[in-house]
Amino acid sequence: MTEKALRLGTRRSKLAMAQSGQVADAVRRVTGRPVELVEITTHGDVSREHLTQIGGTGVFVTALRDALVGGEVDFAVHSLKDLPTTQPGELVLAAVPVREDPRDVIVARDALKFTDLPRGARIGTGAPRRMAQLNAYARAHGLDIETVPIRGNVDTRIGFVRDGELDAVVLAAAGLNRIGRIDEVTDFLSVDTVLPAPGQGALAIECTADAADLVAALGELDDPLTRAAVTAERSLLAALEAGCSAPVGALADLVADGQIVKEMRLRGVVGTTDGTRMVQLSTTGPVPRTHDQAMALGRDLATEMLNQGAAGLMGERAH
């Protein structure tokens, strides 16, 4: 008798379906069980408002979590950067697989690079984090750009460039990789120019805490180094008390000497969306071996950033 299929809850977007399909294949390999995708519409998918207005954090996640708790699905796949930093007690983050490229990228007209865009170039992005850092970089390097708030899926955003409404849009490399459209990128933004969102490029596989066998099976897909990195990044975000709509960037990466991983470096940035004021700091320490060590790495850097005035740069969300 064949085992009952595992039900994987996913958003309906092309990107969500692509990344959930990849996870489904991996789960089939480790469990030997069939996996079926269950499409769920979230508030973030149907609302036309900007993410900052509908509350930012959690808008793509709540409906999936409700389906998990309600027993409609067995596990769910999220983009980790969409997850609120507080984890509900009845759910467990069973796996954080190996991270994709965390960088932001530009898709610009005429195959232009960011620094080659004409004066007054209009660059579309829905993220205050990207606006803050692009504007700060432009200001420091004598570039003249205008950041324009946009929403929509990848097709919609790239369409703004194709039809001449915008000169460029900023997207995540990971998403374009997962849907096979990375060749449309005209420039990869160095993390020295724009730090990604905390958790960007990583996926979160979540299930109910009482499903012990499933938790164990999904755990085989976990990458400890990716988990340590994103835990540190999200700890920084939580300690700054910022939702995912706040202009916070963070990236933890490994410092290696040849093949030997020596340390983990965590960088954080927060700034006003016009790029006039920024607090950007980094710290380097031993690679965290436990959840608590990774949390401490983020918390300690956040404390330093707050001491340098970070809270005042996050608008009314920083209370």
Gyration radius from CA atoms, angstroms: 19 Å
Largest sheet descriptor: 5 strands, mixed
Oligomer classification:
single chain
Give the number of DSSP strands: 13
Residue share in helices? 25-40%
Q: How many angstroms does the end-to-end distance come to?
A: 56 Å
Element pattern in H and E: EHEHHEEEEHEHEHEEHHEEEH
- What portion of residues belong to β-strands? 15-25%
- From the spread of the alpha carbons, the general shape counts as globular
Trace the largest sheet across and list its strands: 2-1-3-10-4
Mean pLDDT: 89
* Secondary-structure content class: alpha/beta
The unreliable regions are 50-55
Tell me the number of helical segments per DSSP (H or I, 4 or more residues long): 9
Overview of this structure, please?
- With 319 residues, the chain is an alpha/beta fold.
- It is built from 9 helices and 13 strands.
- It has a 5-stranded mixed beta sheet with strand order 2-1-3-10-4, with helices on both faces.
- Strand 1 (6-10), helix 1 and strand 2 (35-39) form a beta-alpha-beta unit.
- Helix 8 runs parallel beside helix 9 (291-307).
- The chain is globular.
- Residues 50-55 have low confidence and may be disordered.
